[in-house]
Specification:
Shape: globular
CATH superfamily: Vaccinia Virus protein VP39
Order of helices and strands: HHEHEHEEHEHHHEE
Radius of gyration: 16 Å
CATH architecture: 3-Layer(aba) Sandwich
Distance between the termini: 31 Å
Strand content: 25-35%
Strand order of the largest sheet: 3-2-1-4-5-7-6
Number of domains: 1
Structural class: alpha/beta
Number of helices: 8
CATH topology: Rossmann fold
Low-confidence stretches: 156-161, 163-171
Amino acid sequence: MSETSRTYLPAAGRDWALPLYDPFVKLLGGDAARAALLEQAALRAGHRVLDIGCGTGTLAVLIKRRHPGVEVVGLDPDPKALARAARKAQRARLSIQLDRGFADELPYAAGSFDRVFSSFMLHHLEGDAKAATLLEVRRVLKPGARLHLLDFATSDSHAPSRTSRWLHSSHRLHDNADERILSLMRQAGLADPRRVATRSGFLGDIGYYQASAP
């Protein structure tokens, strides 16, 4: 795991809350939401996939457990979250590559992944970092390969839920509006960006998005 001096928002928003992150997200339906995201990806043996902002590794472990023939790479700037992810993978006896780094500066070669996943990560980023991240996603995807993204999503008529506002600041959530996400995907050069499903719950409205590399 490479070292970095950049600042970042911890996986749970605050370092002290990290031990509570997994049970809290599971209680609010986050694990089920991630499972639905994985089902949309149509993974096949031999695929190489990247989970950006993998946090404590819940999605990365789920991918490898359900698709043992898939090569799974997880990336996150938070070393404490990555340590938890490594322990999860070790307990499950799963081989997962975990790297420390930032989604807007992916340390991977162009055209090296069949799928890129992002779950509950994009809203952590400021606007410029969101745009740079999606440009990097396009770069590392193989031609025709896909991005599968899950996150809080707001619209002009729906404000962020009280729970999601408590978890993260309002300005970050408002910058995660539905059309904003799709616009950033188009600006990054990703093809056919679309919202494919919506899920409602204690976390508020959650959007599932897809786009592909041209």
